[in-house]
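Homework help thread (please don't just give me the answer)

Our assignment gives two proteins as sequence + structure token strings and asks us to describe the second one. The first is just a warm-up. Here they are:
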Amino acid sequence: MNKLILIYLLVVIKLNILNNLIIRLNKMYFLRCISKRYSIWLGILLVAKVVGITAVCAEPIVSNVRMWEHPAKTRFVVDLTEKIDFEIETLTDPYRLVINLPAVNWQVFPTGVRKKTGVVQNWRNGHYDYKNFNYRIVLDLSAPVKEKSSLWAPARGNRYRLVVDLFPSTRKVMLENRANKRIRIKKKTVKPFQNAMFQPPGRKPDFLPEPKIVIVIDPGHGGIDPGATTKSGIFEKDVVLAAANVFKKRLERSGKYRVYLTRNSDIFLKLRKRINIAGERKADLFISLHADAMKNKKIRGMSVYTLSEKSSSKEAEALARQENSSDLFAGIKKDADPIIRVILSDMNRRRAKNYSTNFANHLIKKFRSVGKVLPNPHRQAGFAVLKTPDNHLIGVSVLVELGFLSNKLEARALLSKKYQAKLANAFLDAVSSYCDKTTCSGQEELKGN
């Protein structure tokens, strides 16, 4: 109701301003003929403005986040304009608490609210698609906790408040509570159509033949995980998504390739989900895009990584460890199994490694013609996003570091459309060169064709 009153008042004020303007225009003889036309356009703009206000107000607003320490607990409070559904989950290794929310309009001032308080060491927020939720808050905890959460109705001038109390606990209790919660959720879950007399219709057949070469480009990070972040506020997730879109358009314009992105917007994807998307698309080439940052701001240049359980250098090992921690950063529980327990058979793994090495060399050669590359630009490390499950066999998978955001010149170049276009042309040349020499057919034995 308060929103409707606010919108109504804004409309009345705007209409009064518009009316006064029209009266003044009509008093001027030489504008009489066009005042009516202007009034129509101003009216259209006003309606668009009101519609925009209404759209913004459609999502619940998170107006503030507060936390403080009590003698027996730590309290974390989220102020909301509306009643919402939410879900709480606790995680171990490391200890974290996850708050899943529906679509919200986040309006919390970014500074001064992430101070260490009680058991909460730090917290972060961002978009994250999960079940019926698409926003997530992750709290990093210093010790195991038992949580108690509830949504408080407005009272004494306060808005709706999501209140989460964290009590000291033990690791054993924390694990038991999490297991019990999973059982309760499983009991409530009913598979769609399991009792229906008729099954849903199958997927319509594709009448157009698929292009032979399928490429999946993976813009790294996203959503709650920004990746490398510079002091000036440049996020790796935004840089690589922009580059991926440019690469995709350039490849599609050639007419030779069918190109997919693992994400088209600022959302978070698990590492396994990214490679599974490539497998489901039956990709011939899988390319994960990243941009690094280092303390040494003078370092710049591109590099290409292929999968190896043994890293080619300490730097490559550190980078792989950093990229592989993406799931933990976003508040995903650590699998009991490794990300991929059963990889390709030894024979297939060697073949995939050879194809990937071959493609990496083509990429480096073409990238060298448009920008700076690092010394020894082809490197190897155990990147989880390049580990392909044996049921999704992909011929080529590489991880490309487009440069260093910590270097001002390189960061500026990566944000430039002109430089992105040059990289895209070099990327297309590398793909064309590689596929012409190998006919991209050597991978068919890997993909089971």
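The one we have to describe:
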Amino acid sequence: MSETQKLARTLISLSQGKSDEEKEKLLKELLSILKQKEKLRLTKEILNELKKEGKKRELILILARQFDKETVEKIKERLKEIFGKEKKIKIKIDEDIIGGFLAKNQNYLIDASLKGILRKLLWRPTKF
């Protein structure tokens, strides 16, 4: 793991559960330390690593239509049990999935859509 990856992960760990003001203070302290150590040149790399880490911690929930809040919260809680509490869940609407939902992150996909179920039912392996 590179120095910038370590710094980015440390910054994320330290900022979890903090207010925006506290996060800003942490960032200012990091920049102050980098300046003291004459390593301000790492700032761009650290920001890139922060973006990568943010994407790893992101989960996209794609709904066929807008569900009621209670249903969405139940789905979110279950997804957090599966993928981890630290996941940030973004919601998108895609009517093409007909019904149900898709949940995906960088590595996994949960297809609980009607379109996905129909695709699985209709799929036939080709014979060689």
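TA reply:
I won't write it for you, but here's a hint about the kind of observation we're looking for: The first strand starts at residue 58 and ends at 63.
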